[in-house]
Amino acid sequence: MDVLNLIGGRWIEGEGEDFASANPAWPAEVVARGRFVSGREVERAVAAAREAAPGWAATPHHARAAVLVAAADLVDRDAEEWGAELAREEGKTLPEAIAEVRGAARILRYYAGEADRESGEIYASPRPGENVLVVRKPVGVVGLITPFNFPIVIPAWKIGPALSYGNTVVWKPSSLVPLLAYRLAQALTAAGLPDGVLNLVYGEADAGTAIVGHPGVHAISFTGSTAVGRAVIARCGELGKPVQTEMGGKNAAIVLADADLDHAAEQVCLGAFRSTGQKCTATSRLIVASQVADELLERVAARAARLVVGDPLQDGVEMGPLVSAAARDRVSAGVVRAVEEGAKPLAGGGRDDREGWFAPPTVLDLPGTGVDFWHTELFGPVVGAVRAEGTEEALALANLSDHGLSAAIFTRDLGVALNAVERLEVGVLHINSESAGTFPYVPFGGAKQSGFGPKEQGRAAREFFTQTVTVYLGAPA
Ligand code: NAD
Ligand 1 centroid to 183 CA: how many Å? Predict the structure, then answer.
């Protein structure tokens, strides 16, 4: 399948290098191919977004919303087919991939609904006859940079609010998953999005830095690794440009002694191994109350060992491959290092030498928190466990990380759960469910080094994608 860049309403090949995405289960199979944009074409994309900005901002919110609803219908219509493409390109299982595509449609509809919600505030004034209005306006041209691991839902949760609130967009997806980016852009253009409102450019770091540094791009929303996110924050800081970054995680699941252990073990495995552990909110650290540690770890390890790993398009497969050879090698090196540092594999631990970029679901019994594994995001199907003496120590261990995206805690004690809400340094907390998962209508984003700037999703997205004007509305004399 050939994919094209979209600039100013025209689908173009691109003047840069050729690229192709591969099926991570069968790496010899090319899924999509295309050409990156040149620097000149990034310029053109920004110029097109700038030109389209006044018209789109002036379009009534309900008309903008109608485009999002029409696009959502197209995404839903093709969810099964695009889900299969997503599974072939990224490696998550077919049911997860179809659910992701449907999730993108749901997000577009949610942001279409913003047209019907309140969009400003009115305050009283101490001056007779005056009111103070706070109105919201689009930011202008926004640059969106997205990662590989949710090829359609993360773009949708940036593009949806960007367009709904009247911004125009220059979007650079991950070049590992170009096909789903193409599909989403196709749906939005077929739904009637005017030329230049959404510009899709394929490229690598150089295209990303060009968008971030371009004076014609007014704000940047980035999701990806912490290292790249920090560089984006630094550059935007230099330029005085509003920026929102969602970055890496090292998410903990805490299982306390009073938890339902069967349920906790199942949820820990879902958190650690669904999407092959390639979720920013995946569970990678497990903190277990020492009284139940052996029992819980035995169940987690047994479940991990039973997981059916294989081609994500096949029925019954529970975990697919990692996205690339580099990802597989990074995960495998991380496990080797953990074992050298004293970790004991309770499940997995070795390499999976099949043709595709597979890694075995791995459960490590860690010698403590001094190991590199505790602090470094591997972004693969590996969870490392330590034991805690009591709730206080468990909470402290969970906070022993520079990251603060998501956490899970399993307990039947409401007081303990509420204490965890106060104490855990995270942006998302799951009580008695896995650390991964998010609904589109509530804020999403990380604490500490996992997130910077306003949160995403729900009404929170409005903070980033609009700017307020405070209007002192006096009565005419
Ligand atoms: P990545 O940082 O390698 O790439 C993300 C995007 O940034 C890609 O489009 C990439 O081409 C682009 N990019 C690379 N260098 C750049 C630069 N110098 N300037 C501008 N853009 C540049 O991340 P990835 O491997 O695609 O995704 C996995 C990472 O994303 C993990 O760390 C994961 O935790 C994180 N993630 C976070 C969230 C969240 O919401 N917190 C969600 C999903 C993924």
Answer: 20
pTM: 0.97
HSE-CB at 277 with a 13 A cutoff on CA atoms is 30
Distance CA 241, CA 453 (A): 11
Are 147 and 120 within 8 A, CB to CB?
no
- Whether 266 sits among the annotated catalytic residues: the reply is no
- Write the pLDDT tens digit of every residue in 349-391: 989 989 999 999 999 999 999 999 999 999 999 999 999 999 9
In a domain, 55, yes or no: yes
246 catalytically annotated: yes
CATH number at residue 149: 3.40.605.10
Buried b (16+ CB within 10 A) or exposed e, 377-413: bbbbbbbbbbbbeebeebbebbbbbebbbbbbbbbee
How far apart, in Å, do the first and last CA atoms of the chain sit? 66
Amino acid identity at 215: P
In the block, residue with structure tokens 């390499």 = 351
370: domain range?
Answer: 251-431
CA–CA separation, 28 and 464 (whole Å) = 41
- Among 464, 457, 472, which residue's Cα sits nearest to residue 150? 457
- Selecting among 90, 280, 434, 456, the annotated active-site residue is 280
